[in-house]
Amino acid sequence: MTDDLLYADPELVRFYDWENPWTESFSFFADLVEGSDRVLDLGCGTGLFGAELARRGHRVTGCDPAGAMLDVARRRPDGEKVRWIEADARSLALDEPFDMIVMTGHAYQTLLAPADRASLFAVIARHLAPGGHFFFDSRNPEARAWELWTADATRATLPHPVFGMVERWNDVVFDAESGVVTYGTHYRLDDGRLFEAQSRIAFARKDEIEREIAAAGLRVDRWMGDYEGSPFTAKSREIIPFGSL
């Protein structure tokens, strides 16, 4: 169970796929998964990525703490081909190994504290099959992406397939000491209804991520900085480790 209404409230979840369609990141990650049979999708959300992997022939298990998100996942095309589990990635315990463990859509950043991330990496280490790999994406704090999440920069009125024209915007506060960003998501409908949520995500540095991965007995085989597979640099917008046991 998650207490973030952006993922837990069935009404707000109706905006999720509208705001988060298939993008170049999913295409890139799908290529990384190619050749892997058993795939564990942690923080799978509404199942867009997991269902597509299943359509391509992978055996997919999707895990998410938000039941409202999984309700959408089960109903989507090819969703019946995936085993969906409502569970927290920090404490997941399954009786099978996986050839690939993935965490996409910056879901990794919802783990706010080092202890949370340590628990995640322990779960990954326990569930990786010999020769298996893992990857995830996290925004590079050096790129300061949150500076573009102000109300002025994000306010737009766009057509929604169910609600019609929707005004949407964000607001944001960055805590430099913790590296945690608190951002609001707001949707105003033509009839005056307003849907809102407050979310928190962490911007861990690459050196922090590297230490936490190593502490779990995992290693990173390749550090990438974008969704084309370019090597990570200090100026990269993304931190994408691809690793193994």
UniProtKB/TrEMBL annotation:
Pfam families: Methyltransf_25 (PF13649)
Keywords carried by this UniProt record: Methyltransferase, Transferase
Coiled coil segments of this chain: none
Superkingdom of origin organism: Bacteria
A GO term, aspect molecular function: methyltransferase activity
InterPro entries assigned: Methyltransf_25, SAM-dependent_MTases_sf
Domain Methyltransferase span(s) in chain numbering: 39-132
GO process terms (BP): methylation
Name of protein: Methyltransferase domain-containing protein
Species per Swiss-Prot/TrEMBL record: Kaistia soli DSM 19436
